[in-house]
Each structure stands twice: as structure tokens, then as C-alpha cells.
Amino acid sequence: MKSFDRQPPKIAFERLQAKPNALLIDCRTKSEWAYVGVPVLPDNAQKTNFIEWVDTAGQPNPDFLSEVRNIASTDTPLYLICRSGVRSAAACQLLAESGFTALVNVEDGFEGEIGSSGQRASVNGWKYCNLPWKQG
Is 41 helix (H, G, I), strand (E, B) or coil? Predict the structure, then answer.
């Protein structure tokens, strides 16, 4: 089985900015992008790509792999993020099995785990770390 790296949001953010050819793929749903917000890479907005892993109904995106191939070669450093790191890990696994070699799952995702208050972004994740983001 092929593998991929895992990095917490702050480290992933720093490395994305330091690697000129690295790309961030937000694999959440269109609804999440619109209503929850999206990560921002202030130095290069073109580095952030939005490719659904599954749709709002939970149906797999049959074009996920081809959409990634349209923006990256197999050796392009790719950082994948979802809400909590689960979908992006599955996406990394598929990409690794498909020959991609420079993959990073952003641990804890955009919103992270559910905290004691019953809400996300209160324990870990991109938003919790106060990294740049904007509303859809």
C-alpha cells in the first residue's frame, strides 16, 4: 500500500507557502465551501483548488482523479484538506495508489474535531489555528 504524509494545519500552511509548485486541494463539498468557508493562501490564491471528494448527498465524485490530473502531475506536492481529515486521507490514499508521490493530508482538516461545546473549530483544525480563511 502506498502512503502519504500527515501534517498539522500550521506546518502544512507554512510548507505550502514555501514550495512554489505545491497545491492545496480542498476536497469538501460545494455546500461546505459556501457556508463554512475556505482556506486562503494569501501569497498565491491559484494554489488553492476545489475538487469534491463526495457531493452533498455523499455520492463519490467519479471525476475526482481526472480533475486532480488536470491540475497536477504525479510529482506535484499536493496538500489535501477536508472538514476533519478523514475524507482527505481517503483522497490521499486513492491518489497514492494512482501514482502520485508527494501527498500530504492536512490533519484535523478545516474545522477539526467536535469540541466539548458540540461545535467544530474549537479544538483543532485550520480555523482553530487562526490560519487565513474566508467565507465561501
Answer: coil
